[in-house]
Amino acid sequence: MTVQQIQPVIPAQGRRFRAYSAKHLDQLTARAGLSEAERLTVRAVATVLPFRTNDYVLESLIDWSAAPDDPIYRLVFPQADMLPPEDVAPIAALLTRGASEQELQAAAHAVRLRLNPHPAGQLALNVPEFGDEPLPGVQHKYPETALIFPRQGQTCHAYCTYCFRWAQFVGEPDLKMATDDMARVVSYLTAHPEITSVLITGGDPMIMGTSVLRRYVEPLLALEQLESIRIGTKSLSYWPQRYVSDPDACDALRLFEEVVESGKTLALMAHFTHPRELEPALVATAIGRIRDAGGVIRTQAPLIRTINDDASTWSAMWRTQLRLGVVPYYMFVERDTGPQGYFAVPLVRAAEIYRDAYSSVSGLCRTVRGPSMSATPGKVCVDGVADVAGQRVFVLHMIQARDPALVGRPFFAQYDPDAVWLSDLKPAFADRFPFESVQEGARPMARRGPHLVAAAD
After folding, report:
1. What separation in angstroms does the CA of 261 have from each of 168, 190, 215, 221, 372?
2. What does the buried/exposed string (b/e) look like for 64-100 if buried means 16 or more CB atoms within 10 Å of the residue's CB?
């Protein structure tokens, strides 16, 4: 398809975007059959964690006859027991007595700080310096890849309840990452020719109008060092109209074409959590238009308890994605932030789910990698459990690493049936994990409990 051939499509499902926020929660949770007490608790949780959805999700994805147990309902609506009762009860009491917004936010802030708002060294280790000053809104964790957080893209069409970037959405400036200084970003990229791929992320960059998105993408096209421009997005799940019937849908597709014409790969890193998100015909239409514009779509999602924690869900999702012409890419482990304790699946179970799903699909679906932990040292993949030298162990390797020399090297951890994250594991056959000894004076992982992070964080 050429730029001139892209034409608007106005399907029957076309509608204007309408968002719903925490002020609509009581009405919406009543629709799900929650009691008044349950709705109060949900509102207390939503005082700490963000809530946002839209009418497409409400009317095209959620099965209200199955709510509140419906997986898409659980994907977007806060759950009463997502946070510990000792954190929720005081906020519920404040809501009951009509406390001021200042009181509510002070109580919520105290809880948020206990939820590890920036995991894997996002601020402490990943923000680069340029000209002896930090470069806000950029992360450079791996040598060849830089992440850009557009200032206008730090929200989404709807929020996932498990999102590891929840801290971007709660209105606390100190927890946000964002930039609108593309001149400085381009100067940094130019000074680092090892960067060959840029990931524009958020929030969701596709929440921006195309004219704003262009301001972030266009300056990158002249950088010969770049081989690919990636856009991390949930829009195909939560608002496929973005590529079909939105007023500037065709402009977005033309921008994608320009990226491809510049000699770079345009990849949408599409977030699909459940096969139902792929069912509406509008999704297939959107995918087809992106592919016609030259874009490549790769899919990823975390393994989440109560939403997609069984092999049949994943195999069905990967098969559908293959039929639609997109590439299954990652199964992630729920990150050590926010309500991880509520959503996390033990690593041993995660490996079983991945293996069972992987073994039931054709070779073309076996492009997917996982289960992968995006941890401080890099992306750590759980290959499974084995008996080695008379000891039961986890077999692990690094898909990506701060130190590229560690990529692909197998290593072992002591078997722990309750472990849900890297910091729960202890080395097997060694005093340290490989990534703990790559730098002189590196500290071992902090192993103080199931939901804590590396000592470097």
Report:
1. 33, 21, 17, 9, 33
2. eeebbebbbbbbbbbbbebbeeebbeebbebbeeeee
Dump pLDDT digits (tens) for 383-406.
999 999 999 999 999 999 999 999
What is the rounded distance in angstroms from the CA atom of residue 125 to the CA atom of residue 2?
A: 42
The residues, any chain, with a CB within 8 Å of residue 222's CB and separated by 6 or more, are 262
- Alpha carbon distance 148, 137 (integer Å): 6
Q: Render 356-394 in DSSP notation, one character per residue.
A: HHHTTS-GGGTT-EEEEEEETTEEEEEEEEEEETTEEEE
Is 457 in contact with 119 (CB distance < 8 Å)? yes
Q: How far is CA 318 from CA 73, 75, 232, 303, in A?
A: 21, 19, 18, 13
Measured between alpha carbons, how far is 159 from 338 in angstroms, rounded to an integer?
Answer: 13
Task: Please give the Cα distance from 117 to 275 (Å, whole number).
Answer: 29
Q: Is 345 a residue whose pLDDT tops 90?
A: yes
Q: What is the pLDDT of residue 131?
A: 87
Residues 6+ apart with CB under 8 A from 196: 144, 145, 225, 226, 227, 228
Range among 79-93, 126-140, 156-170, 319-333 rated most confident:
319-333
**Relative orientation angle of helices 36-48 and 101-113, to the nearest 10 degrees:** 70
> pLDDT tens across 185-206, in order?
999 999 999 999 999 998 999 9
Tens-digit pLDDT profile for residues 23-70: 999 999 999 999 999 999 999 999 999 999 999 999 999 999 999 999
- Opening angle at CA 69, ends 370 and 422, nearest 5: 30
Within 10 angstroms of residue 191's Cβ, the number of other Cβ atoms is: 11
In whole angstroms, what is the distance from residue 108 CA to residue 93 CA? 13
Cα 96 to chain centroid, rounded: 33
* Structural domain spans, the chain: 19-113, 348-457
Q: Is the dihedral of CA 232, 235, 240, 246 positive or negative?
A: negative
| CA 180 to chain CA centroid, nearest Å | 22
Would you give the DSSP letter of residue 240? G
